[in-house]
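DATA SHEET
Item: assembly model
Revision: 1
Owner: S.N.
Input lines:
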Amino acid sequence: DIQMTQSPSSLSASVGDRVTITCRASQSISSYLNWYQQKPGKAPKLLIYAASSLQGGVPSRFRGSGSGTDFTLTISSLQPEDFATYYCQQSYSTPWTFGQGTKVEIK
Amino acid sequence: QVQLQESGPGLVKPSETLSLTCTVSGGSVSSGSYYWSWIRQPPGKGLEWIGYIYYSGSTNYNPSLKSRVTISVDTSKNQFSLKLTSVTAADTAVYFCARRSLGQPYFDYWGQGTLVTVSS
């Protein structure tokens, strides 16, 4: 199985801050990396696919980058509705696996 | 607009079988364009992909659960189902059904999730 490791596990930030979350794969996954946002009691919502492609309807303040084993999700200016948990997920090979999540909290 | 809705018992006894159904609306499980997956999330923890089924009936399961999992599809009802045998407390989780397109390697539509508790 491909292991996905996110860092940090949690962070505190203020509205307007730039936030960066990293995701590392245990082997190369090319660009088969997706990012999801999950709010309490809700299903995950796709934000970024193929490492850097923005899903339709997702604000442009979300940006994904990386390839191979190292990936980054950046929120350029954190908004109140962005406080949530973020997961990376590899779709390179089954079993498809997720990172452990990064919880973004209000500072 | 595609919608997925999970249904099934919210409480299952240890050693018994967990059974859930996902009803798809606004789309067809008979379409050859999608994989239909189950994903679970223990309370306060991360996401685990359980497996998928294709309209033809072909399946792919997570090896960690493969010996206990069966996913099936009922095209007449536009549903797909999950059976997990010999459950323990470790199987307590919110279970989500989700869709992934063949040409797009991500989960684009999810059900709202249903909590299944394993307890006597």
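QC remark: DSSP finds no helices and eleven strands in chain B.
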